[in-house]
Amino acid sequence: MAHSxxxxxxxxxxxxxxxxxxxxSESRTAWDRxxxxxxxxxxxxxxxxxxxxxxxxxxxxxxGYDAMFLARPGLRMVGADLSSLAVDAATAIxxxxxxxxxxVEFATLxxxxxxxxxxxxxxxYDYTFFCALHPSMRxxxxxxxxxxxxxxxxxIALMFPLAKDDADRERGPPFLVCxxxxxxxxxxxxxxxxxxxxxxxxxxxxxxxxxxxxxxK
Length: 217
Ligand SMILES: C[S@@+](CC[C@H](N)C(=O)[O-])C[C@H]1O[C@@H](n2cnc3c(N)ncnc32)[C@H](O)[C@@H]1O
Fold this sequence. Notes:
Strand content: 15-25%
Helix content: 25-40%
Bound molecules: S-adenosylmethionine
Number of domains: 1
CATH class: Alpha Beta
Largest sheet: 7 strands, mixed
Number of helices: 6
CATH superfamily: Vaccinia Virus protein VP39
Order of helices and strands: HHEHEHEEHEHEE
Distance between the termini: 36 Å
CATH architecture: 3-Layer(aba) Sandwich
């Protein structure tokens, strides 16, 4: 199956961090659409979704467009990526745009292993991150969100790339996903409070994206 980004490496689950470092050092970032996700912009700007105030995080932020978009008065964002090259690129774009560093901070860190600020995060945005992880990591992904998010926090997950059939779900990244994969991973700690199957999508990903919002119980 063809996806709109392809990382050609095929390695064991434990070596995925290495893949991402290599992608960045070899400038292989074909997943990058160069702009904020249309579905996220639509949710906030057109549908008027109200975000909790506090601190938000975008794990696997890449060049950081979504973190920059989400930052606003009352909501300070952290864009986090394993790769310092991603973080440098995102920081350079932020500075070019004149966005103050106290509105959006980019940090080199592993989502699964960093010190969570006191009180946790009130907002998270997950796009092309769930699918970037080997399926064996999904339970850990959900447990980690449960750990880092405050009660009542909103996890906005733009599900992508949606599987239409029994295609090989072990091949990737990106690994195919479905709504049940998110439900299973997020378990009893989150409730689904919004889903829009007809949300906007990047041109090359129409039919493969559905936006959801999950509330941390
Ligand atoms: C497919 S890219 C998507 C980047 C960005 N979300 C976008 O749409 O342009 C996945 C990103 O996740 C980062 N990443 C992978 N595993 C990570 C981890 N455990 N912690 C933080 N970042 C990670 C990679 O370095 C890469 O930049």
